[in-house]
Amino acid sequence: MPDINCPHPLSTRDAAALVGVLASLEGLVLVAGLEDHAVQTLLRRLESDGIASPLGEGEDPGFHLRQALNDLNQQLRYALGEYDSPQAWAPGLR
Question: Any stretches that span the bilayer, and where are they (predicted)?
C-alpha cells in the first residue's frame, strides 16, 4: 500500500482513541499475552500494510508485534501534533 495521506483525515477524538486502543493492545500482548494465532494474525496484517517488517528467523513474534503497535502509535501521536516531525522509529523510517 502506498504511503500517502488519507483523503479524509481522522478527527482528533478518533486519533486519540486509537492511541489508547493501540497502547492497551500493546500492554495486553506484553502482560496478559495473546494466543499465538492472535499474535500471528495481527502481525500478518501489520506486515501487509507495511507497518511491520517480516518476522526474521528466531525473532519473538510478541516483541515484533509490540514494536509494530508502538510504531503505529507514534505515527498517530505525530498526527495529533505531539511531535514536530515523525519519530525515527516510525514505520518507514528505520
Answer: 15-34
Place of cell 488519507: 6
| Interaxial angle between packed helices 61-79 and 12-27, expressed in degrees from 0 to 180 and rounded to the nearest 10 | 160
For the stretch 76-88, pLDDT in tens is 999 999 998 887 7
- Average pLDDT for residues 58-81, to the nearest whole number? 92
Whether 70 and 88 have beta carbons less than 8 Å apart is answered as no
Residue 43 belongs to domain spanning: 12-79
Counted domains in the chain: 1
**What residues contact residue 18 under an 8 Å CB cut-off, 6+ apart?**
10, 76
Look up the pTM and report it: 0.83
